[in-house]
From TrEMBL:
Molecular function terms from GO: alpha2-adrenergic receptor activity; G protein-coupled serotonin receptor activity
Top-rank taxon: Eukaryota
Database matches in SMART domains: 7TM_GPCR_Srsx
Family named by the database record: Belongs to the G-protein coupled receptor 1 family.
Name used for this protein in its record: 5-hydroxytryptamine receptor 4
Source species of the chain: Culter alburnus (Topmouth culter)
UniProt cross-references to InterPro entries, sorted A to Z: 5HT4_rcpt (IPR001520), GPCR_Rhodpsn (IPR000276), GPCR_Rhodpsn_7TM (IPR017452)
Compartment(s) where it occurs, according to its Swiss-Prot or TrEMBL record: Cell membrane; Endosome membrane
PROSITE patterns: G_PROTEIN_RECEP_F1_1 (PS00237), G_PROTEIN_RECEP_F1_2 (PS50262)
Listed Gene3D superfamilies: Rhodopsin 7-helix transmembrane proteins
CDD domains: 7tmA_5-HT4
GO CC list: endosome membrane; plasma membrane; synapse
Function: G-protein coupled receptor for 5-hydroxytryptamine (serotonin), a biogenic hormone that functions as a neurotransmitter, a hormone and a mitogen. Ligand binding causes a conformation change that triggers signaling via guanine nucleotide-binding proteins (G proteins) and modulates the activity of downstream effectors. HTR4 is coupled to G(s) G alpha proteins and mediates activation of adenylate cyclase activity.
Length: 395
């Protein structure tokens, strides 16, 4: 607005404020255009428009990213479950029952936990009440713990299959024991999630701080803060103890695989590669299969640790530094963990030939090009190696 020359008493009238025209003054005051700078000039609106545009672009990008994570997690885990249900060969492998249960846990994360976390992250406000906040938090802890316990059971299953004899594996991994292990993967997380959170054991001693953060500013937040005993107990049971068991199991698997590989190499050098009998050939094929299976599961476990380790490290450290971890860092660590629910089906598709073939059959409506060829041929009989479930796992 250009300046105008006027007597001092006509200042308001010159700049559009007319005491005799209240209908003109209202809208101007509402939109804040009458705030003058120290020089008597109108402020520039370009900066405000730029900030609004940047904020809108960030919101759209955030919504797109979170929606992609949730959609891929739902579709991928459903695909894993359907593949095992429809493929008879996959159903014969005991390890795949743990994988189906793991996919079910990840599916529940993407359906029951992620959407409400995304809404709160976008709107910066929790509108579903305190009770549902506790339920949602309990589900979060339950499903997170269930995922890593399933991976721990898978590593123990691989340990018995690779490091023990086939008969020992069949005796150890009976259907009843598999069912009990899967049941434990769900019961233990329930005990450390719903029971203490609903009873408020995690908030003993820090209730005032929780209430202060819950109603900070003009918004309400679904705050989940834990005291030192709960942080240590929950993190050890849900992450650190299973992680140690998995590392030990896969270390033993790696040592055993290398020892078997050296034995096979010595037999081939002694008898000649062309004179190896069928038993040596079967042992060689089985060990290559088992070694690749162990590597595949190590990659899956490694991705889980990379996704969830930042959260559990922060969860233990935060109570000992007076809860000074920024909320943005908490949100980033939490969603990094949620991304793991999306990664498992992707890892199965790219690293597992059996799952990849089953996925293609489902997605291509059972096209004969992708159907499994007969391994044994018509009329052939199964050998001990072929009926051992570990032979076909994650080829």
């Amino acid at each position: 607005m250009r300046g105008c020359k006027f007597p001092e008493e006509d200042f308001d009238s010159c700049h559009g404020f007319d005491p005799r025209a209240p209908h003109r003054n209202g809208p101007l005051r509402i939109y804040g255009y009458m705030n003058l700078s120290s020089t008597g000039q109108m402020p520039e609106m370009e900066e405000v428009d730029t900030n609004e545009s940047n904020g809108l672009a960030k919101t759209v990008a955030l919504i797109s990213f979170l929606s992609l994570v949730m959609l891929m997690s739902v579709l991928g885990n459903l695909l894993v479950m359907v593949a095992v249900c429809k493929d008879r060969q996959l159903r014969k492998i005991k390890t795949n029952y743990f994988i189906v249960s793991l996919a079910f846990a990840d599916l529940l994360v993407s359906v029951l936990v992620m959407p409400f976390g995304a809404i709160e992250l976008i709107h910066q406000n929790w509108i579903y009440g305190e009770t549902f906040c506790l339920v949602r938090t309990s589900l979060d802890v339950l499903l997170t713990t269930a995922s890593i316990l399933h991976l721990c059971c898978i590593s123990l299953d691989r340990y018995y299959a690779i490091c023990c004899q086939p008969l020992v594996y069949r005796n150890k991994m009976t259907p009843l024991r598999v069912a009990l292990m899967i049941g434990g993967c769900w019961i233990i997380p329930t005990v450390i999630s719903f029971l203490p959170i609903m009873q408020g054991w995690n908030s003993i001693g820090i209730n005032d701080l929780i209430e202060k953060r819950k109603f900070s500013g003009n918004s309400t937040s679904c705050v989940f803060m834990v005291n030192k005993p709960y942080a240590l107990t929950c993190s050890v049971v849900a992450f650190y103890l299973p992680l140690i068991l998995m590392v030990l199991a896969y270390q033993r698997i790696y040592i055993t695989a290398r020892a078997h590989a050296r034995q096979i190499s010595m037999l081939q050098r002694a008898g000649g590669a062309g004179n190896a009998d069928s038993a040596d050939h079967q042992r060689n094929h089985r060990m290559r299969t088992e070694t690749k299976a162990a590597k595949t599961l190590c990659i899956i476990m490694g991705c889980f640790c990379l996704c969830w380790a930042p959260f559990f490290i922060t969860n233990v450290v935060d109570p000992f530094i007076d809860y000074s971890v920024p909320e943005q860092l908490w949100a980033a660590c939490l969603w990094l963990g949620y991304i793991n629910s999306m990664l498992n089906p992707i890892l199965y598709a790219f690293l597992n030939k059996s799952f990849r073939r089953a996925f293609l059959i489902i997605l291509c409506c059972g096209h004969k090009r992708y159907r499994r060829p007969s391994i044994l041929g018509p009329g052939a009989t199964c050998t001990a190696t072929q009926i051992n479930g570990s032979t076909h796992v994650l080829k």
